[in-house]
TrEMBL record:
It comes from Mycetocola miduiensis. This is Uncharacterized protein. The chain crosses the membrane at residues 35-53, 65-87, 94-116, 122-141. Keywords: Membrane, Transmembrane, Transmembrane helix. Residues 1-30, 148-168 are annotated as: Disordered. It comes from the Bacteria.
Amino acid sequence: MLSSYTSRVTAATSAPTAERPSTATRPSTASRASGAILGLVVGAIYGTVGTVAHQNTAAIGDVGLPVGLVLALIGVLGLLLGFRLLFDNRVPVLFAAIGLVGMIALFSVASAGGSVLIPQGLIGLVWTVVPVLVATIVVAWPRMPSRTTAEAANTPPERANVRHEPEA
């Protein structure tokens, strides 16, 4: 009785080991490089668009709501999370973050004519700091072990729905 309970609990609590993918399933160097270039270009484009749009506000009465900043930050999170979930490695999301943060840094300094796209103030400070924090968290987030379809199909029902009660 006790040994069957112990084996069921051990089987339910033991986590599957994450194996390294074989060389046949690993992405090639060309696909990794193209993912990195795609990430850099998309990150730079979004950094430019977000920098221009983050200053937009919607006036409700006498209060100006930073709608552009909120939408730009949601877009940063969506872009980086999408790259993280789409690709198997961190290289494309790292390059997307480099392109994004690089454009923000480029537009925060004064141009030759003296204009600045990210002026000093709370909205500009949030736009320069939060994308860096989001990028750091998304790039550093650990990879979750994935279950293949074969593993999910071969999981016995008693292991998928285990009760932790001793049998009477």
